[in-house]
Amino acid sequence: MKAREEIRRLANKGIAKNSLRFFKTEKGQYGYGDIFLGIRAPKIRLIAKKHVNISIVNMKILIQSKYHEERFLGLIILVNKYSKTKDKKTKNQLYKIYISSFKYINNWDLVDVTCPHVTGKHLIDKDRSILYKWAKSDDLWTKRIAMVSTFSFIRQNDLEDTFKIAKILLNDEHDLIHKAVGWMLREAGKRDLEKEEIFLKKHYKIMPRTMLRYAIEKFPESKRQAYLKGTILE
Q1: pLDDT(234) > 70
Q2: Summary mean pLDDT of the chain
């Protein structure tokens, strides 16, 4: 497969070694056991653009690769295919391939740069109950997909699901969920600050600190400190 040949020619041991640390691959960490070729994301995106017309079979081979960057490549190709096609049947096929590949979408970069453009966009005009099922999953990445998928809705000024899924994940124990929820709350606030503050005033005292910090990152300093100190007027 030309796409795989091309990406493997770019392998860099130094970058791969740094990636092992950056993506937390030691025992007990969220990326445990992942393997890297050592290729930066912009170069992978260029290869993906060049090979957007590869077969579905070869795309799935990349998505299921043991190498992180090949999974990234396959997923970006899927995103590009989804964006490029106008055919509803093809879009549905690509969506189904994506959700059947969750076990391979197993780090925050793979989630964040793909799910808003596939699951998020696909569900804009459809029933979204599947997101709530994912939000209640035991799997870290499935929960993050549920939250970050709502970014597509936010861009349509549709914020209801963001706040509902954020509420489900309020008590989650993982830092990467805290960050994802806080990030989406912040993005929702850019569209409707009043609605974000209604949510925050109701929940900020029990929110994990990281989640709160992400959510209020763009607030004026005085208001940010009031939330952090628990002195905001409700």
Answers
A1: no
A2: 97
> pLDDT, tens digit, for every residue of 43-77?
999 999 999 999 999 999 999 999 999 999 999 99
3-state SS, one letter per residue, for 142-206: HHHHHHHCCHHHHCCCCCHHHHHHHHHCCCCCCHHHHHHHHHHHHHHHHHCHHHHHHHHHHHCCC
User: Distance between CA atoms of 44 and 26, rounded to whole angstroms?
Assistant: 24
Q: How confident is the model at residue 212 (pLDDT cuts 50, 70, 90)?
A: very high
Q: Which tokens go with 26? A: 């030691």
| Amino acid, single-letter form, for residue 182 | G
DSSP secondary structure code for residue 214 in this structure: H
What gap in Å lies between CA 39 and CA 41, rounded to an integer? Answer: 7
**Helix, strand or coil, per DSSP, at residue 194:** helix
Closest CA to 147 of 161, 158, 157, 160: 161
Side-chain-side CA neighbours of residue 218 (13 Å): 14
pTM: 0.96
Burial class (CB in 10 A: 0-12, 13-18, 19+), 129: exposed
pLDDT at 30 over 80: yes
pLDDT greater than 90 at residue 233:
no
Concatenating the DSSP letter of every residue in 87-119 gives: -HHHHHHHHHHHHTTGGG--SHHHHHTTGGGTH
How far is 52 from 79, CA to CA, in rounded Å?
A: 9
The string over 155-192, giving b where at least 16 C-beta atoms fall within 10 Å of a residue's C-beta and e elsewhere, is: eeeebebbbebbebbeebeeebbbbbbbbbbbbbbebe
